[in-house]
Amino acid sequence: MQILAEAVLNAPFLIAVLATGIAGLMRGYSGFGTAVLLAPVFSTLWGPKAGVPVVLLMELLVSAQLLPRAIGEADRRMVLPIGLAAVLAMPLGSLVLLAADGTVLRRAIGALVLGFGLVLLSPWRYHGARPLGLNLVVGAVSGLLKGSTGMSGPPVILYFLSGPEEARRHRANFILFFGVIGVASIVPPLLTGLIDAPALLRSAALLPVLLLCVRAGSRLFHHIPPAWYRRFAFGALVAAGGIALLG
Predict the structure, then answer these.
(1) Which residues cross the membrane (predicted)?
(2) What is the pTM of this model?
(3) Which end of the chain is flanked by fewer CB atoms within 10 Å, N or C?
């Protein structure tokens, strides 16, 4: 009972529920947004070593819901090598999570999310070629971030959005990438004991909220113009980054 009270029966958990709902809408609409929004919020509420494992568990479970349809629509020749490089680099990132000071890591997560939100709002995008070597580098950087902060998204999202594909193809690429790395991402924290009873309780309690909002976001994809979504996503990312950076 004490573990349950410490994990979910408190005010910080209510904040986590709100953030999870917003992240679910983002993920369902665009194919990304779960980890990049929840990592700074959960790290602020519970500390990176307790918050990041919850992000990893929820990312894995929500990917399973979206993955079947996305496999046929995604560019597998580009996405799978990036995902493989990320998987191989994740254990190194997990060492950073174990060794880094919690406050420093939380603020680093906040700065990364805040910077990513500003770049996402700006018109800048990478418009160069996407050869295999560059794909592997982007994947490796994403894997390092995934292991250390729970977020693989920023470099991959900007890289994927640089292509000429339509929104549906971008969304499928994101879903496939996050699905590929989802299983591998929980192995290091599982082996090191970071996925403990409070992490499992928080994940189980937040998962219904996430899945419901992901489904709602998927429906909104067909009705809300991308320009409106960009404003919503930017506001959410700036708020989450600011909380972690200044909290």
Answers:
(1) 7-30, 79-98, 104-124, 172-191, 228-246
(2) 0.79
(3) N
For 14, the token pair is: 């209510």
Measured between alpha carbons, how far apart are the two ends of the chain, in Å?
Answer: 29
pLDDT interval class at 108 (50, 70, 90): confident
Asked if 48 and 100 touch (Cβ cutoff 8 Å), the reply is yes
Q: How far apart are CA 113 and CA 96, in angstroms?
A: 18
| Pairwise pLDDT comparison (8 vs 15), residue with the higher score | 15
CB half-sphere exposure, 152, CA atoms < 13 A: 36
Containing 20, the helix (H) or strand (E) segment is: helix 11-30
Which residue in 99, 152, 161 sits closest to 125, CA to CA? 161
